[in-house]
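User: structure tokens for this one?
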Amino acid sequence: MKLLLVLAATLVAAMPPIQTVIPQAPEMIVLKFSCGKQESGGHMIRSVQEPDPPMNEPIHIDMSKKEEPQEIKNRRDLAERRADMRAAEINAALSNQKSRTVYFYHLEVRNTSTKVVKSFAWAYQPGDSPDPSDRQFFCLVKAKPSESKEFDLFTPLAPSRVVDASKAGDKPKENSIGSIVINKIEYMDGSVWKRPGWNPATFTADATGKVATGKCIGL
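Assistant:
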């Protein structure tokens, strides 16, 4: 009996450990991607007495009563003048503000693995090869096997941190040349795929912990 137990223990010890095969390529494909920019200028705040556009004559409605004391009328007129002056000050301040550039990114991906995706990190690579200046993004998502998900991001972050001075005035074209690189995929079962050479410290746990499902953050 002891001999059988020793033999069984020897056979178990001799068995090679089960290894998990990690795919070299990410089990996620990019179906669509586009990016561009738009200018957002200041907004005008109009007085309540003048709700119409400047090209139209404002409509004034007399809410006073004929038998109303003159003191009450004077108070109302003073309040209206103060409101008009305040609106004019706000409009003047907003008109001096420079328009802001907002960049948009549209991404559609599909989970090609047999596991549920919890989150993934990706980068937009405008050039032919990876560069430290490429924009990095992290998205939180619950994507089942073979399921596709879309993301729309609006951010002040330009597609690249490096600006060519000779092309500083040019607008990035939608569907411009570039590629999407999947850097990391985290699954619901706790397993993780990471692209070789990618720095996992790119996104801190504090930053990723604030992302809601279906949303993304960028660096």
